[in-house]
Amino acid sequence: QKEVEQNSGPLSVPEGAIASLNCTYSDRGSQSFFWYRQYSGKSPELIMSIYSNGDKEDGRFTAQLNKASQYVSLLIRDSQPSDSATYLCAVKGYGQNFVFGPGTRLSVLP
Amino acid sequence: GAGVSQSPSNKVTEKGKDVELRCDPISGHTALYWYRQSLGQGLEFLIYFQGNSAPDKSGLPSDRFSAERTGGSVSTLTIQRTQQEDSAVYLCASSLAGTGIFSNQPQHFGDGTRLSIL
Predict the structure, then answer these.
(1) Of B93, B78, B83, B85, nearest to B45 (Cα)?
(2) CA dist B88 to A25, A99, B41, B93, Å?
(3) Least packed by Cβ within 10 Å: which of A53, A98, B94, B97?
(4) Which residue of chain A comes nearest to B3, CA vs CA?
């Protein structure tokens, strides 16, 4: 059974702080890793993807991947109230199917 | 370009009726996925298609649920004899289908169909 785990939260951070979201996965054969953001009542939208060990930065977002430890994280710098949402971690192997984590609810307090 | 399109956006029906939900993927996307999301819950995988075939339908919760895809494009999810516990948002996603070391294509989601069973 391939599993992806995330803390459900809520994770509360003050505006301007760094939010750190973590995800662990069970399948060592996983190849591709994605972070989706889902606002309440909306569908998930892709914000980051990462495939190699290390860091990948895109604006205020940084994805970090450590395949040896089987974890992937998402850092949000200078958090804004508009970042308040549920963040979903998704993992993909060589096949076509994705495994999603349960999501972490982030609340950025003004 | 156009994103994943789902219809209807909302569906209200009586218990026991059959419903059909439609998904039109992004043009050229050969992989298509169906998920269900109940209020406040995570994504529940239902089925995915590669072209017209469904390599993994392990998530379909009962034999009342079925899905098909024709022409490698549009997919319909059918729920027969609906029950109140079927009430949820049904999300469809599509992706380019790379394989092996090219299997790094993300999914793109439609806006979902909100299904309410009275």
Answers:
(1) B93
(2) 27, 20, 10, 16
(3) A53
(4) A45
